[in-house]
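To fix ideas, we close by showing one paired sequence and structure record:
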Amino acid sequence: MAKMKGAIVVDIEKCKGCEVCRVACPNDVIAIAQEVNHKGYHYAYQEHQENCVGCANCAVVCPDGVITVYKVKLSD
């Protein structure tokens, strides 16, 4: 079976920092930033990219739909 590598992109200006995505991630890929966006929220971001498998749990549970998940098939 081909191995997959994942990556997420968070629209930080729309993220409200609810942390639901962080809790849903099985590989501890997501963290909450110390900085705030223009609305004053601490936003989610991909901290440990190397652990992402592209499962999309974060995007599914995001109440604002601000997470996009990408998957790349790794060469054998």
Summary: Helices lie at 20-24, 57-61. The chain has a mean pLDDT of 93.
